[in-house]
Design a protein that fits this description.
mainly alpha, 3 strands
Length: about 350
């Protein structure tokens, strides 16, 4: 049985790398069933199952090292005990590899949005980029003065953000077939302070098919992050595509806070490309300026949260961030995303294609 599961994982990975047609079929018909069944079960639990699995995995890795020592150097009884434990761990490893293949690896080899929903769109230059940028800036400037704030001027939200994110994603299902159906409850990460040291806003846990988010980060980032991670749950594993759907889900909302979060989620990607097209101060002045409130809200964490994290940290933040970036970069490249973390930035091209016929 163990051998059959290992062979199945190998065959699926080979099919994934060499047959885009198979992956498209898989994400269209099989993956949604896993989300509805397995993902539905993990969604019932109030805590992040994926986060718990990682903790268990770290424990198993540590104890496996000890058992390996006993297996090599221990006496007969200890070798027998260690052997049973290590054989059990190989079962866990094979199952993890199979689950990762089904819930993550295969998704990296499906046809991208440019070949499916956005097929047939043209190429875009400085003029289209500037129109997109000016449109987003006008929207975000207006919303910055509409959203609710507390006495300090910090943003506030009074409502069930997770449920609203699911509602907004279901709406997209009327336009994008793969976004139809069941959505799990987005879950807050228990160790969000440690996640903040990685500068991560959320995670899609393939082990549990969960959309999770950083509970410590500034509240404006939460709706966009929830919708981004829910897009992953629907099989859109590329980061630029998840960014794209996170944006669309939020900006279509009737709630100003969600719309603000959506525009905030992409403004820096667009602004960076836009500024690369500007040659002079006079040229820059011809375009709308980002409102000071937007700049005030454009933060990952509030200052007091950073201060608390730095006071209580177990590990150096720069080191944690560097390790996290290297891990993410390596994971993306190994799965065929050649530009690694820079792929997040490709959302600008998707937005240019989406607004073709709307803004230009």
């Amino acid at each position: 049985m163990k051998g059959m599961l290992a062979v199945a994982a190998i065959i699926l990975n080979v099919l994934g790398w060499y047959s885009k047609r198979f992956c498209d079929w898989y994400v269209q018909y099989v993956f949604p069933l896993l989300g509805k069944t397995y993902g539905g079960l993990t969604s019932i639990l109030p805590f992040s199952v994926g986060e718990a699995m990682i903790a268990i995995g770290i424990f198993l890795l540590f104890t496996s090292g000890i058992m390996l020592f006993f297996y090599i150097f221990g006496k007969k009884k200890k070798r027998q005990m260690a052997g049973k434990y290590l054989r059990g761990c190989t079962w866990v490893l094979i199952i993890v590899c199979l689950v990762m293949t089904l819930n993550c690896s295969l998704l990296y080899h499906v046809s991208p949005l440019e070949e499916t929903y956005l097929a047939g769109k043209g190429k875009y230059g400085d003029e289209e980029l500037r129109k997109l940028r000016d449109y987003v800036v006008v929207q975000i400037n207006e919303l910055s003065q509409e959203v609710e704030r507390d006495s300090k001027g910090d943003l506030t939200y009074d409502g069930n953000m997770g449920e609203q994110a699911r509602i907004e994603m279901r709406k997209l299902g009327t336009k994008f077939q793969r976004l139809k159906g069941h959505y799990p409850n987005p879950k807050g990460i228990y160790f969000s302070d440690f996640l903040s040291q990685q500068y991560m806003m959320g995670y899609y846990f393939p082990f549990a098919m969960e959309a999770t988010y950083n509970q410590t980060m500034y509240v404006v980032n939460v709706p966009y992050t929830m919708c981004h991670e829910l897009a992953h749950v629907k099989g859109f594993i590329y980061e630029d595509e998840a960014n794209f759907f996170g944006y669309l889900a939020c900006v279509q909302s009737e709630e100003a806070f969600f719309r603000y979060s959506g525009y905030m989620g992409v403004i820096n990607y667009i602004e960076k490309d836009f500024k690369n097209t500007i040659k002079s101060e006079e040229e820059l002045k011809a375009h709308p300026t980002i409102h000071p409130l937007v700049k005030r809200d454009d933060i990952f964490l509030k200052a007091e949260d950073w201060e608390r994290i730095e006071e209580r940290k177990l590990f150096d933040t720069n080191t944690v961030n560097e390790i996290s970036n290297n891990f993410t970069e390596t994971t993306l490249v190994l799965n065929g995303v050649s530009d690694g973390m820079r792929s997040y930035h490709r959302v600008v091209q998707l937005l240019l294609a989406y607004y073709d016929g709307i803004l230009y």
